[in-house]
Amino acid sequence: LSTGAVSLGTKELVSGGNVAQKAVSRWLYVCSGWVFGMVVLGGMTRLTRSGLSMTDWKFTGSLPPLSAEEWEKEFDKYRQSPEYRTVNKGMSLDEFKFIYWMEYAHRMSGRALGVVFALPFGYFLVKGYITRELGARLGVLLAMGAGQGLVGWWMVKSGLEEPATEGGHARVSPYRLATHLASAFVIYSGLLWTALSVASPSPPSPHLPQVVLQSMARMRRLVLPVSGLVGLTALSGAFVAGNDAGRAFNTFPKMGDDWIPEGILALQPTIKNFFENTATVQFNHRVLATTTLLSIGAVWLASRGLALPGPASKLITGAVHMTLLQVSLGVYALLSYVPVHAGVAHQAGALTLFTIMVALAHTLRRPFRGVTETTRLMNRLGQSKYFLRCLSFWLVSNA
């Protein structure tokens, strides 16, 4: 690992010049896009109730059934599961094959991502492109990616247990589903932020006018908490999905006949309502979504009249448009009883909005401290030269 490069205060995350910078950034963008696709595929797997079709898990993976006998054997395993007995009793073999292939594709795409990440990582290490700081970041992301597979199986395993209540349906734990989604969002944001940092290693330059730097600092104080709010709203959506809460109160803007539904604090202890009560979970998601819409609108209003760089202004406008679209998708999914295409689009929209906010926060990030120190040194040097020139002129004039 190289120690990294600092040129005129600009901190590089790769060594090897423009060729290395482009190669590493493109690789990280591919990995980021792959994770995005996996989140969307995971949503499709959940909405088609495919996630519990494979009743075992092997870290290295396994070949799918290749013969009629192997398919029957796999189907027999599924027929012994709680989901078959409580949800899919009477399912045909062809129907089982569909949900099996969905889950198999999701699992194998995760393992393929591990190869796509690990092999180039090793290659770039050997080439000396990876600095120590970047190597540490990527090492953490690699470990998290490996752990995500375990989290996924931990989630699936909860759905293979008997329902907690008599007459209940088998489904995964909403807590574990939310953990799985949150982990995916963290991995995705880490990859995307790192890709952006490699592709654009120079932070905002202190050579910009002071008014621009002050405007960026002001927006940064607004954008960071709003970005967290976007993530929190997406996480609340995982509890909506985990409790099948999207298939209840399918009216808008009211929930049935009420603005605040009855029984939102019916469970004991009270804290359970926020994670397990269908009415409360959906109400919370509506409130968070509305708050997100208003907050991003406030960010847009606050940015008016500020001297911001072009990319930041475009991203803020894009965030407003995407938020409006995302809210519309959510309302459509709710009113139409969450068809697969609407649910998948809504999940993809959440990650798209989160992407915009990550890119915006990156655009507004603080200048690297070394830039400021170098600029101050250069300014002092320039002032010294100016003083010496004035002194020389005065001495010559009075000689």
Overall geometry comes to flat
What amount of the residues lies in strands? under 5%
Mean pLDDT figure: 88
- What is the ordering of alpha helices and beta strands? EEHHHHHHHHHHHH
Poorly predicted regions are 5-10, 370-379
Distance between the termini: 60 Å
Give the strand line-up of the largest sheet: 1-2
Keywords: Heme biosynthesis, Iron, Membrane, Metal-binding, Oxidoreductase, Transmembrane, Transmembrane helix
Subcellular location: Membrane
Transmembrane segments: 27-47, 108-126, 138-156, 181-201, 222-242, 283-303, 315-338, 344-364
Membrane topology: Multi-pass membrane protein
What does this protein structure show overall?
This protein is an all-alpha fold and 399 residues long. The protein folds into 2 domains: 1-202, no CATH class; 203-367, no CATH class. 70% of the residues lie in helices and 2% in strands. It has 12 helices and 2 strands. Residues 5-10 and 370-379 have low confidence and may be disordered.
